[in-house]
Write a structure and sequence with these properties.
Two copies of one chain form a homodimer. With 321 residues, the first copy, chain A, is of the alpha/beta class. Chain A has helices at 2-5, 13-26, 32-39, 55-69, 83-93, 111-120, 141-155, 175-189, 206-217, 231-243, 261-266, 275-292; strands at residues 44-50, 74-80, 101-105, 124-127, 136-139, 160-164, 199-201, 225-228, 253-258, 269-272, 300-303, 306-308. Chain A binds a DNA duplex (16 and 16 nucleotides) through residues 2-3, 5-6, 10-12, 15, 30-40, 97.
Chain lengths: 321, 321
DNA sequence: TTGAAAGCGTTACCAC
DNA sequence: GTGGTAACGCTTTCAA
């Protein structure tokens, strides 16, 4: 009878009908756990996501869900808010018992765990992160940082500040620091001296970014433009400007990164990355591998970045001096 | 050896140590599927969420995740974007094989399914929805609608429009329509005639709401205030005002509902509902029932609403006439 | 206290 | 094509 459920090629039409009828009458429902135990797969994919409530993470997750929508896989969510979480989840995820495959976001898995997972053969796809021997869906964050900063430089700004994540963050996020690298590179090339006081680090949070921006604006020589490493942080900058009575973009230009929902509303100039698509592609790669039981090629898929100019950037205002 | 894993009371210290050592050496990891099959539970709770990417849903989900954080349950996400989805998910969820318990959000389960789930004994908690014989975590949406509208009336507005979800929506959401009921009740009590043209329905989406608001503002007698059934829709209204060259709150007052992240940023006056807490409480109730294998009392837990006055409401501007 | 064995609900293999 | 049965990896029960 399992043969008809998994529509094996060898069942006569009559038997199939008979079994189907019985199933209907008894209200039979296959137990996914038993099936999973027997087949050695759980029909489940896991998504390891740091701060899954962040707009960018949600958008990526939406892509994953969309990819799973057509399949018969369930999505198990592993939220990571502390390094300990990460440790626990990866420890639990070793072995393909919990999930048939993993989409890991923004979070380079500890290489030790990665090796074990790879050795055991758990298919993994990294999204917004890279790892040895594992396929990844990424963008060129350095280039993104260059786009944002370059735009500001082209407008004539020379006092450009940066707000982003701490390069030594406990999770090992790399996107933020790379955007910062792009920022520094452009500054170098434009012959603009790098000012340490113009670079501030803090959590990916609107209010934190706002505080950081207020510090920047209180500097003796405040920046005429701020590049925030994410749109969430950019909104904090916008808030700081508003509170400080600064007009945007006349008195202060602001560029963000991501292009989340709120950005269009806020008229924020930003660097768009295909968040939804990254989740979609990541999950598709994974499903493909899981379904065909084919090992994943460790290809790095790079998705394009787009500069979106809206209403928060303009040439610097001529002021004192 | 399973005895030591489930730390049964009757194992000698020495054997326990011995087993633990072996576990360590062999790198043994229990298979959750097998355990689940044997014990008849999957250590999983399912969350059925319509449009899980909506900020309000995400915030509720965050509460659920927080509640699960301390437990040993995994979260399986069932996203619902079409009535068909809903059907499929509930059909699959019948029987406690897939999940040991369910948190169902904003979406009154079809009563037929509800009965079956109840009969089989799958613990369910409804959040932002009600159902016969099932515990629920709700707010008083009618009262919320009254708060918002009452505030506008108290400010002196007599031309108050409403933007919300279609009462005949395919999912059976009730929150929106109830807020609308509160709106109508206050209008009645204030002796303000109800204008059909002042009530517009559309999807829970910023751009849709913006279009609706534009229609309202193009009316021969445009409203001086708009109550949007959700903050997402309220931002659409704000956008329409901005595009139309209307100042908020001088020319147009706007009230939303939910108090999501963006609302504080936008300075939106709104009715706050405890989104995070609703998810937290819902999941806690569920876990409690699942852990003790105690049936759930069909209690309706009502969470409080708070009116949050910010910067988008003011007395109506005196104009023509 | 511990070892052995039955059973959980499927699938997959092997005869018929 | 179809029926029977081992096996999946764990928990639980029953002896020892």
């Amino acid at each position: 009878m399992s043969r008809v459920l998994n529509d094996s090629p060898k069942v006569s039409v009559t038997t199939r009908a008979r079994v189907l009828a019985a199933i209907e009458i008894l209200g039979y429902r296959p137990n996914p756990l038993a099936r999973g135990l027997s087949r050695g797969r759980s029909q489940t994919v896991g998504a390891v996501v740091p701060f899954f409530t962040h707009a960018s993470a949600v958008e990526r997750l939406r892509g994953v869900v969309a990819a799973l929508g057509t399949s018969h896989y369930d999505l198990v969510l592993f939220n990571v808010e502390t390094p300990l979480h990460r440790e626990e989840h990866f420890a639990a995820l070793i072995g393909r018992d919990r999930a048939d495959g993993l989409v890991v976001m923004s979070l380079p898995p500890p290489s030790e765990h990665l090796k074990r997972l790879l050795a055991i053969g758990v298919p993994i796809v990294l999204v917004d992160a890279r790892g040895d021997g594992v396929p990844a869906v990424v963008t060129d964050d350095i280039e993104g940082g260059r786009m944002a900063t370059g735009h500001l430089v082209a407008l004539g700004h020379r006092h450009i500040a940066f707000i982003g994540e701490d390069p030594k963050n406990a999770f090992g996020f790399t996107s933020g620091p790379q955007r910062e690298a792009g920022y520094r590179a452009v500054l170098d090339e434009a012959g603009i001296p790098y000012r340490r006081s113009y670079v501030r680090h803090g959590a990916h949070d609107r209010t934190v970014a706002r505080r950081l921006a207020e510090q920047l604006l209180a500097l003796r020589t405040p920046p005429t433009a701020i590049f925030a490493s994410s749109d969430v942080q950019a909104t904090g900058v916008l808030e700081a400007a508003r509170v400080g009575g600064l007009r945007v973009p006349e008195d202060l230009s602001v560029v963000g990164f991501d292009d989340i929902e709120i950005s269009a509303y806020a008229g924020l100039t930003t660097v768009r990355q295909p968040l939804f698509d990254s989740g979609l592609l990541g999950a598709r790669l994974l499903l493909d591998a899981v379904d065909r039981e084919r090992p994943l090629d460790p290809i790095v898929h790079q998705l394009p970045l787009t500069f979106v100019e809206r209403a928060t950037t303009a040439p610097p205002h001529r002021r004192r001096r």
